[in-house]
Amino acid sequence: MSATTKSTSIEAKQSRGHDVDERTEGGLKKSLRLLFVYTLATGAIFTFVCYWDGIFLSYCGPGTWLGFLLMTAMVLPIGFVYAELSTMLPSTGSCLVFNTVGMNKHAGFWSAWLIMCAWLAVPAAGVLGILEWLNYQFLDNGLNGSYAVIVGAVLLCLWCLVSLCKNVVAGGLQTAMLFIAIGGLLITAGMFFFSGHWSLSNFSSFFANANAGDYGIGLGWIIGCAFLITPYFGFETVPAMVEEGTFPIKDQKKAILGSVLTCGIIYAIFYLAEAGCINWNDYAFDSAPFVTFETLKLVFPGASWMSWFVIALGIFGVVFPIGTSVLGFWYSAVRMLFAMGRQNFLPKAFAKCNRYGQPIIPNLLILAISIGFLAMQSITAFFDLMAFACAICYAMSSISAILLDVRHPEWERPYRAPGGMAMKIASLIISLTVAVFCCIGIGVQTWVGFAGYMGVGFVLWCTMLAKWRIKGKDSTVWMRTPAGVIEY
């Protein structure tokens, strides 16, 4: 039931003051500075640059850098909308909160489940990337089968342990990995630009792409560009950490918009540099990873130091971006599940925290799901799944932003998106457009995985429907709003 047809302001009822204290007590501890939140968001967005390079370059060819610039411009309106919503509704849960308050608890549940489809795929995809890099660089494809699963599970356990520690541990670790990765990639881009092999002639087949055979050059490139939204999702992790921030609420916009711009600029520079050194007539467009390593070897043949540099690039171009991204999304998914447990979308056990203020069951559940996801070996399927799920969730949040503008113009908004309603409509149109083009290009394996994931969500949703139908304190969910704590 939507807030406009059935809602109860808890704080307006003095007799229920104890319930308010109980419900607004989250268990999370304020310990994240703005820099840490920015690096967690930027680190989450910062994609697997030298692992998924084959996907990016296959989808958009020599024009990959332009695709990233266009997607940066397209994501910014969505970022503006999230910046406004997150300062108006500063509670852990992001789209869970936005869409419950904007539409109803069912929209809140499903938007949260959709975004977690992307978030929960990241740890397994990241581990797969590290294992493939180890095979490529050191093991000659000797790590596979059950051995790969065991090593991958150990890596996931390490991420889980970091997530269960104090916030400053994760924040400090992510800050170090992120800035080392950015510095290393910019150095590599400079090497490409000044190698003597970079040439404008390599951009003659500017829109060549892997989808051209099925959809034609133009539509194929647009479909590939739509999938480039995957390297941008992550800015929505900022609202997931709002209750742990030690900075003014309105400063969230700096982390959200700054993370999008930082990553977009770096992507464009790096792939402009690399694309200018690739002979596209010989490129296979097969989405195979580690194109950057092979390009470096061709551009600097016989250089005695190149083998060592490729190993170093593997660390700051594969391992560190994966490390920052996995940690950022793991952190955010944990807090989403925590919020769902605290606010009666899931059993209350999901809201219990350890002595460091870290949710216990959500961490363990994500560990189990991630180990299970290791069975999904296709990196392209991972990539496509994330893009589609994110686009649908962004569209739902844009609808909620529009509805809240209409229904509650009086609510305080510490930050307002420039352009007002026009920006929110643009965000909705962009999100739906990306979703449509992703839908056109998605393969059967991705649809099967998506259907299975949504099936699990359907079972959980039906379980909670039965719980909500029983009268009593567990028959509603609640959200903190500018009008007080409201039941839905």
From TrEMBL:
Transmembrane segments: 35-59, 65-83, 112-134, 146-164, 176-195, 215-235, 255-273, 305-338, 359-379, 385-404, 425-444, 450-470
Molecular function in Gene Ontology: transmembrane transporter activity
Source organism superkingdom: Bacteria
Segments forming a coiled coil: none
Basic and acidic residues bias (residue ranges): 13-22
InterPro entries: AA/rel_permease1, APC_superfamily
Compositionally biased residues, Polar residues: 1-12
Membrane topology, as annotated: Multi-pass membrane protein
Pfam name, any one: AA_permease_2
Compartment(s): Cell membrane
Primary location group: membrane
A Gene Ontology term for the protein's cellular component: plasma membrane
Keyword terms of this UniProt record: Cell membrane, Membrane, Transmembrane, Transmembrane helix
Sequence segments annotated as region (Disordered): 1-22
PANTHER family: AMINO ACID TRANSPORTER-RELATED, MEMBRANE PROTEIN
UniProt-recorded name of the protein: Amino acid transporter
Species of the source: Bifidobacterium anseris
Source organism phylogeny: Bacteria, Bacillati, Actinomycetota, Actinomycetes, Bifidobacteriales
